[in-house]
Amino acid sequence: MSDKLTPFFTSTPLPRRTFLRAAGATVATSTLVLAGCSDDDGENTPTTPSTPLLSYTNGVQGITANNVVFNYLYSLHQLTLAFYQAVVAAFPTGMTTAEQAGFTDLRDHELIYTESYKYLLGANAIAPLTFTFATLTLTTRAGVVAAAKKFEDLTVAAYNDVVMRFSTDSTGKDYLLFAGKIASVKARHAAYVRDLEVAGSFAGTDVVTSTGDLAGLGAVLTPSAVITELAPYFTVTVVTSNTAALA
Amino acid sequence: MNILKLLVNLTEADPELLARLGSRREALTRLGSLTGKAAVATAPLVLGSALRQAYGRGAQTITDSLSLALTLELLENNFYSRALGLVPNTPAVPAGFIPSDLRPGIVTVQQHEQQHVAFLTRVLQASGADIPTNLNFDFTGSKNGTQSAPFADVFSNFDTFLQVAQLLEDTGVRAYKGQLATVQSDRVFLTAAARIHSVEARHAAHIRTLRRNRNATVKPWISPTDQSITTAGLTDAVYAGEENTTQRVAGQTIPFDLLPIDAAGVGQTALQKVQAAFDEPMTATTASNLAGLFIY
């Protein structure tokens, strides 16, 4: 499936700068922050991770919880962008023209989100990441739609969680509203791809609580739960446990 | 330590209190660990503030937000329930009004609205707040025949029904978003509002997909290329502001015209994607006015 990773390098009208950067594993990983290693216990032999670690604090001293959360969201959008870019660069067989236009919108929205978060985060921003989709089947419509559903549903659940992680001052309220503006469009994305997979499955019982006091409420997942689900697609080991902002 | 004893009594009388206290639970836990003068001095402030918010007294903004949400959910639930023939003493819809293959999706939406009504009613009642009652709905928009009906065939023409559904769902999404900041101080309500907000957005996308499949020009996300279904001065507030291409966060304005977001190489048209990529909030007043089109 390595051919599925190469679309970044194929001729596309995408801004070359952006995607060469996104694909530049060497550059990206060299600037990743080693985090989560406790070095105050000299008796332990430090374990050497097989992959670099990614911390959403980005090693920035005094980074605010708001920016840690934005870095987390930024990484989710980087992943989804890379996925949709791979899809758009080589549409699977069986995908209609209308569906191709729909997935192009999804790609374009993700590009807008990633560039927005990157801009807003400024020096706090984590580096561009690389991903692997080798375990996904991107050559069939069913494979693409199933993967899109997974990524969109997880991101919606992630957004439902992060709303409570922003500060309650005016800055935090701005961050909350900005995330909220994206959250509902992500839910629209999710419903769209779910209806593509099975008509009428836009809000199935796997993503909306169906019984009990919380019936009718959308799924919510903590950062660690989301990252556990998405770990197979990251080429770095993502750490969420080293910051109270994502606990 | 009378105040701590009061808290114990309150939680015995109302087991859900601690859950409703939400973010203030930590403050109360810390309070419990204090001793002597510090606790005596701090307890009334912490507890007073917490209970006021938990029960809504003196915190009108949070209960106002929840009450607005409940009004919108009652409206939506009644709308879908009528179409499904679930509301007694209302005119029956024509046989086959909802195409049989689309009915399960409409049932899903209606059930969610009913669940949202139940949830919001419960938390409002638990907060001691007033519940909107005796609301009468007229989805033709005629206010029970007192004015011309912009949606006269809402329950006989499925396409009109879907248009009204889209207006209601998109309004709901924007209205919840407009209340996020208001309820932010209460984690329980904030998370619940966000979770309902995401479900409403799923509904909106589904309704839009149904319309698209019936040859309407509309995307699952609010797009400037959508065929207009609003009337100036009546329903145009549903989408007013969605044309926004300026996003400003904590003093920073995102320079979309300078960012490499034009993946498709379409120039200024890329900004149309910016409009679609962000759903904008709606004020409580606008949402109330829009709901008022269907309430008499």
General shape of chain B? globular
Round the Cα radius of gyration of chain B to an integer and report it.
23 Å
Give the structural class of chain B.
Answer: mainly alpha
Q: Describe the strand arrangement of the main beta sheet of chain A, using strand numbers.
A: 1-2
- Rg for CA atoms of chain A: 18 Å
Q: Could you estimate the helical fraction of the residues of chain A in percent?
A: 40-55%
Spell out the CATH superfamily of the largest domain in chain B. Ferritin, core subunit, four-helix bundle
Strand count, sense and barrel status of the largest sheet of chain A are: 2 strands, parallel
Give the termini separation of chain A. 35 Å
Q: Helix-strand pattern of chain A, N to C?
A: HHEHHHHHE
- Shape call of chain A: globular
Task: Describe the protein's topology.
The complex is a heterodimer of chains A (247) and B (296).
Chain A: H1 16-23, H2 25-30, E1 53-55, H3 65-89, H4 97-121, H5 141-162, H6 170-197, H7 223-230, E2 237-239
Parallel strand pairs in A: 1-2
Chain B: H1 2-13, H2 17-21, H3 24-33, H4 36-55, H5 60-83, H6 103-126, H7 158-183, H8 187-213, E1 248-249, E2 252-253, H9 270-277, H10 284-292
Helix pairs in contact in B: 3-4, 5-6, 5-7, 5-10, 6-8, 7-8, 7-10
